[in-house]
């Protein structure tokens, strides 16, 4: 199940029937989609897969949303379908709807509390470049950002920006010729065994995605504007329309270093992750794992992160928008959606209702 594009597409369209209308994941003109995609298999390197936008709803609109999700117009949640084998679809992030103004946009992603580009815990909203020294060990890089302590090549930065297309498909690893690949995001019920966030963060892992959007300080020249080719035209699928959105509230991304390569996390068959967990973590995870979905590192996808040609000084220091999207199992989402809605309108008369004067013509 979910190994073909039609599986995710059929689920998405079937799920929304009979449920409240979904909304765009959007804040102050910045947009994102959580795209459900075929779950790839095998150890060959795949091309970027097509996908279908998962429906999303605002946390503020539903009484049954847990208090821990917080409140605010930047917060959303998306349901995740799971097959009887405990495996869900693949997934990728689509931020192309944010790249429509005169200003370039950089996006710093977070997956379950870690940056999938660097493999580090995310706890500060800050764009970072890695040109000279390893951010984990502080030692000078050798050729091509190779750290002699980490024994692998670091990415050029912790964010996605032009000339890259604004999408991202998985956890970064090293591809052929030293270029970047990613291992596909895919959903699993084996949270303790396969979830990359659990391996890196232990009990600090959170079932949410976060996106911090940074705008360039200066507009780009008119002649440099790009036509955005829908992913489906390039790859035989994909849906550029924006029918769903993510929820926000990430207050911090990362400077706490949690490791830099997937191989060190012990994720996969036979992988041991207990060394990353605190003493109190097992009890915390047992309570959550019954109703949780993990994000695992799957097959390789050819996605090279090209270095940002702009200096960091060309970007605004503070994000223009921060969006957080909680992800929950499908049955949990249904319970929330079928429960009471929160009154976000209040007095239907607005400011007139406070005046204490007769309204109407009688």
H/E element string?
HEEEEEEEEEEEEHHEHHEEH
Q: Choose one word for the global shape.
A: globular
Helix run count = 6
Name the poorly predicted regions: 232-290
Number of domains: 1
Radius of gyration: 21 Å
* Percent of residues in β-strands: 15-25%
Keywords:
362 residues, alpha+beta, 6 helices, 15 strands, 12% helix
Write a brief structural summary.
The chain has 362 residues and is an alpha+beta fold. Helix content is 12%, strand content 22%. The strands form three sheets. Strands 1, 2, 3, 6, 10, 11, 12 and 14 form an eight-stranded antiparallel β-sheet that branches.
Q: How would you describe this structure to a colleague?
A:
The protein is of the alpha+beta class. The protein has one domain. It is 12% helix and 22% strand. It has 6 helices and 15 strands. Strands 1, 2, 3, 6, 10, 11, 12 and 14 form an 8-stranded antiparallel sheet that branches. Strands 4-5-15-13-7 form a 5-stranded mixed sheet. Strand 1 (25-27) and strand 2 (30-37) form a beta hairpin. The longest helix has 12 residues, at 5-16. The protein starts with a helix and ends in a 24-residue tail after the last helix. Mean pLDDT is 81; it is low at 232-290.
């Amino acid at each position: 199940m979910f190994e073909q594009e039609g599986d995710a597409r059929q689920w998405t369209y079937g799920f929304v029937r009979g449920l409240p209308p979904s909304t765009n994941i959007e804040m102050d003109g910045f947009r994102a989609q959580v795209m459900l995609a075929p779950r790839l298999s095998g150890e060959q390197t795949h091309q970027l897969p097509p996908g279908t936008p998962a429906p999303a709803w605002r946390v503020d609109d539903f009484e049954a949303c847990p208090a821990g999700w917080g409140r605010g117009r930047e917060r959303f949640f998306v349901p995740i379908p799971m097959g009887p084998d405990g495996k869900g679809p693949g997934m990728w992030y689509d931020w192309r709807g944010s790249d429509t103004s005169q200003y370039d946009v950089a996006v710093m992603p977070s997956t379950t509390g870690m940056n999938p580009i660097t493999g580090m815990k995310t706890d500060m909203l800050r764009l970072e470049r890695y040109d000279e020294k390893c951010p984990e060990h502080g030692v000078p890089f050798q050729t091509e950002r190779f750290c002699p302590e980490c024994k692998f090549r670091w990415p050029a930065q912790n964010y996605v920006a032009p000339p890259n297309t604004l999408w991202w498909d998985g956890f970064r690893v090293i591809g052929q010729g030293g270029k970047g690949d990613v291992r596909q995001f895919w959903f699993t019920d084996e949270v303790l065994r396969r979830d990359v966030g659990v391996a890196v963060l232990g009990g600090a892992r959170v079932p949410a995605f976060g996106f911090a959007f940074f705008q360039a300080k200066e507009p780009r020249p008119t002649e440099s504007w790009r036509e955005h080719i829908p992913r489906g035209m390039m790859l035989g699928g994909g849906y550029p329309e924006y029918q769903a959105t993510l929820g926000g509230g990430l207050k911090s991304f990362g400077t706490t270093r949690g490791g830099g390569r997937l191989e060190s996390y012990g994720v996969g068959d036979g992988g041991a992750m207990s060394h990353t967990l605190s003493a109190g973590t097992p009890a915390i995870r047992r309570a959550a794992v019954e109703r949780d979905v993990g994000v695992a590192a799957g097959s390789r996808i050819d996605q090279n992160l090209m270095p940002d040609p702009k200096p960091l000084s060309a970007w605004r220091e503070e994000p223009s928008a921060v969006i957080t999207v909680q992800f929950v199992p499908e049955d949990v989402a249904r319970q929330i959606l079928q429960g009471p809605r929160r009154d976000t309108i209040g007095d239907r008369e607005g400011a007139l209702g406070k005046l204490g004067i007769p309204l109407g013509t009688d």
